[in-house]
């Protein structure tokens, strides 16, 4: 090759060509071949291809950085010495990174000295008072009393610190507003801080501001304070549209546990198991616990017993009605979770276009993310770009959906959908699941139990009491009524459902003894008759007619329990 190790190119023998020389393929083609190879080994200005080895430059200087910009040639990166890499802005040093063991520093123009960059990205800057708008990643020490805003667009690791050096912040405490970002402490979007010779440090972690340190300065400044500092929280949380139904796990219409595959316990949650086995159950939080905010009553537990097999799996699913949900936008999932040991789970989204007709094939492996659980309750957030559905075809049965999957156990057939999660046994617990528009997770806002129940009843309903389940023997006279005349031998009753169902449901009717497809007839020999055959007619999304035939004369009415299912 004509280019040597230093990058100098030398023409091959025979070049330059002397006037009158006959062009010969032996040397001319070699020359063209070498030129072509060297052009290929050169960097394109229009971004075609990339470097195949480290890109090296001169050491540079503050006024002439090594790597700079066309319109701003005095701003960029350079090396002052082998152990000192710097960033200059308009010819002035602003930040430097040094050898291992030495802190990263920034240049303080006012003091004309290098200052250390604090842990977690916090820069300590000194101001006489707190400014009205706070910059991301900047800490403030002040003796004043002010109101201030958190940074508008913080990054994980940004920190803000406040300290009262004059022991006077108890008289006029200041308020910190989230500026669109929520706080984790007590579900508040604002803090009121009474420092009084104390300090407070905030850090932005997992898409939310949290207090990571709070204490007094008496040791450093000699203050003898009995009531040195307090912090209170201002409730100013607004509801966030949550696409997840029963994310707080308040509603369990079917049962409070299941070992089966499918819907069977926590409402709206499809608990899928193949080959592997699981036990899903409702668990109660200890009253007054503070591990998970909002004082939730229940959480969902899944105990997985993995069985080896490429097709074996266990995962927890919610199908959000309508495949258009979040399509073509960014959405954010947030949830609290823990496990019996440090374990990974996988998050996956799936677009299903329904059945009937010729729908488009479903799209899996959307936003596949691995989440590490610990033995403590931790809030996790995952932002995902949901694909557009432009050009897709829906099925004709009205059952298309966007699906959220919590993968717990996954054979090798599902590596692409789970980041190769693999197979594992263990206990997995979930609380406060929320899915919302945008790239930032909001504080979980629980609906009332009545609101949540009504949302669940669009997909599943029963007329049993809350913790009484299908097939139980009951004493109440539910849906008792009459239709027609007793002497016709036909008696019946129309049930109007409390909430309109998503689609035409499947329906099972029980007599008071709990036997399916039967009813209880009253007024026959003054005694109720159980296990009476029934006939269902006019099943719609809003009501059903239940009738009994060949009823003995004198019957007064019928009674029955029911469940209706219109799940996706």
Can you offer a commentary on this structure?
By secondary structure, the chain is mostly beta strands. It is built from 4 helices and 34 strands. It folds into 4 domains: 1-56, no CATH class; 119-234, Jelly Rolls; 257-457, Jelly Rolls (Sandwich); 486-565, no CATH class. The strands form 9 sheets. It has a 6-stranded antiparallel sheet with strand order 15-17-18-25-20-23, with no helix packed on it. The chain has a 5-stranded antiparallel sheet with strand order 1-2-3-4-5, with no helix packed on it. A hairpin with a 2-residue loop joins strand 12 (198-205) and strand 13 (208-216). The chain is elongated. The two termini are 66 Å apart. Residues 118-147, 179-189 and 218-238 have low confidence and may be disordered.
Compose a concise summary of this entry.
The chain has 568 residues and is mainly beta. Helix content is 6%, strand content 37%.
Chain oligomer state: single chain
Q: How many H/I helices?
A: 4
The structure class reads mainly beta
Low-confidence stretches: 118-147, 179-189, 218-238
Approximate helicity band: under 10%
The mean pLDDT is: 81
Q: Total strand count, please?
A: 34
Largest sheet features: 6 strands, antiparallel
CA gyration radius, whole angstroms: 34 Å
Q: So what's the CATH class of the largest domain?
A: Mainly Beta
The named CATH superfamily of the largest domain: Galactose-binding domain-like
